[in-house]
Design goal:
The complex is a heterodimer. By secondary structure, chain A is of the alpha+beta class. Chain A has two domains: 185 residues, no CATH class; 181 residues, no CATH class. In chain A, 40% of the residues are buried. The longest helix of chain A is centred in the C-terminal third of the chain and has 44 residues. In chain B, 32% of the residues lie in helices and 28% in strands. Chain B is globular, with a radius of gyration of 18 Å. The chains are: A alpha+beta, B alpha/beta. The interface between A and B is medium-sized, with 22 and 28 residues. Bound molecules: adenosine-5'-triphosphate (ATP) and magnesium ion. Magnesium ion binds next to helix 1 of chain B. Adenosine-5'-triphosphate binds next to strand 1, strand 2 and helix 1 of chain B.
Chain lengths: 414, 237
Amino acid sequence: MNILETVRLALLQIWAQKLKSFFTLLGVIIGVTFLIAVIAVVEGMNRYVQDDFAGSIFGINTLRVERVRTRNTGREDAATLRRQSRNPDLTVDDAEAIAANVPGIWYLAYATDRFMPEVWSGSNRRKNVRLLGVTDEYLALQGWDVLEGRGISRIDHVRGIRVAVIGDAIAERVFPDGSPVGQHIRLGPFRYRVVGVLKKQGGLIGNIRDASVVVPLGAYHADFARRRARIEEINIKFRTTEEMEAGEAVVIEVLRRRHRLRPADEDDFGIESASQILDAWEKVKNVLLAALPGLVSVALVVGGIVIMNIMLMSVLQRTREVGVRKALGARRIDITRQFLAEAATLSSVGAAIGIGAGWGLAELVDLITPLPAAVSAWSILVAIALGVVVGVVAGVYPALRAARLDPVDALRYE
Amino acid sequence: MNPPDSAIILTEGLTKDYVLGAETVHALRDVDIRIDRGDFVAIMGHSGSGKSTLLNLIGCLDTPTAGKYWLNGQEVSTLDDNELAHIRNREIGFVFQTFNLLPRTTALHNVELPLIYAGVSAKERKATASRALDAVGLADRMKHQPAELSGGERQRVAIARALVNEPSIVLADEPTGNLDSSTSAEIMEIIVKMNERGETIIVVTHEQDIAQYADRLIGLRDGFIERDERRATSSLA
Ligand SMILES: Nc1ncnc2c1ncn2[C@@H]1O[C@H](COP(=O)(O)OP(=O)(O)OP(=O)(O)O)[C@@H](O)[C@H]1O
Ligand SMILES: [Mg+2]
């Protein structure tokens, strides 16, 4: 009863002096904003890196060889970039040499792709499609599930049979009624028989997969490639991280030998694994998470001190009120509770504003950067708890001072 | 010593000293008084004679340097802080010269305060406080804040607040000190009515006119009781 009334009055007080309240609460607001936003970005990033990024593009314990690294670290100088641009194309022979010489390979698949303006069947068409030519183990290696029908087989690949596995978005658009399996789609002048449909992935990265048409590499090379032996990527999956790390050295050796590089020459191909990206992310994350408690607590301590000062001033200004309340029968505990509730309300409002601001910041990051950010429920709970705790801690001393006031002195106070 | 049943207030050698550095101010010296249920007492005396000090001691806001004080037969000096708060809440109603209403809250909330500290439920509180405001003629001012009320109205709110917990005794320290003479008369009429309904009242005042309303006059000088006399007739104007 009393507490609710106190909270209401504290809120009125805060609202009556909006600007002053804002500056009083700035520390708490900044602390909580940081807390919410950083946790949202870290958690979003975590999910993105682990589920989407590392998982679906690379797969676990998978090496990817490309002509140049597609995911640059951003620290390459101009010379490196120039050198990379002169790298030779990867070929089917490169891939088969790796398959023949690297021990411990679980899956190996290679692929090449291109943009197709459209695919169609009858009058239904889907524009802007990614056409992928792949070897038979590609879907399994990437973990792309075939929802209906089958994948690309060894025979499809070796014989260059015109079959296709299509993404969910294409199935939906080109075959709106009925199953696509067994039907034909047109890719330019060629007719491909649909043998399977990929499971929908959705999301940022999934959009690309869902709008893909996957065909055997042999058919791709025959129908769409200018240079028949050229491939974009070689993916090699191992059972364990140790095998992958050992395998990486052999892959590099095999390719260097095939490309006739001298010991002093730099690699003329790119090789990456998910673990590198996970490692890099892990480092960034650890820095963020290590800095977070420090930043947040500095802001909260400063915020708490400001609140304590404001509360001390408030107690001084309201000395007479305390005297009146005591004359009317308030016990020390009643006065203590009143000022504690006020301080807690004050800093909770700060926390609430901080939650809003942090949420906004996370949404902004989500919007203007490719980083996904989602505010998690637990960080909000932590923020609210911190708000209350900071308020109570900051309020203890002022509240006790108020409670200890002598009623006669307090009533006489001008 | 056990005080007689009818004595609501009994003091024996009540003394209050203030030590200011090397100097000691004897605000109250050896005061013995006895006030019975239903008494209407005016305390008079020059400024600094100890009137407020005596009232604060009686109201359990202050503790004496020496002497004993029984309120309703209970010795107050043996009580701890919480018990004193309880007594102020249930047994004492204060009316101050400067009204001492909480600003920025309604008249109703001000009157509710003693009920809040008595632990009365919100619903009952509202009803009881409304009745108390009605009794002082402020039924239509409940939602007004002190700043929106005249001096006389503020003091009537304060009186409603003093009465709302049905205390044994109402203590008023110069209740008309900040009011003009006609408003003072209105306030005193209300206090007289309270007394007629059986309330025990002690009023501190400088003014002879105000003291006229009381049945008994205690005069203080330099912390001593200088005179203590009962009037034969009640002084309804
Ligand atoms: N807190 C205090 N510290 C020191 N001296 C005090 C204190 N309170 C009161 N006194 C002194 O005690 C004496 C009695 O004060 P008190 O307030 O009781 O007088 P009063 O009769 O109510 O005067 P007034 O009519 O001006 O209100 C005065 O001399 C005053 O200065
Ligand atoms: Mg006085």
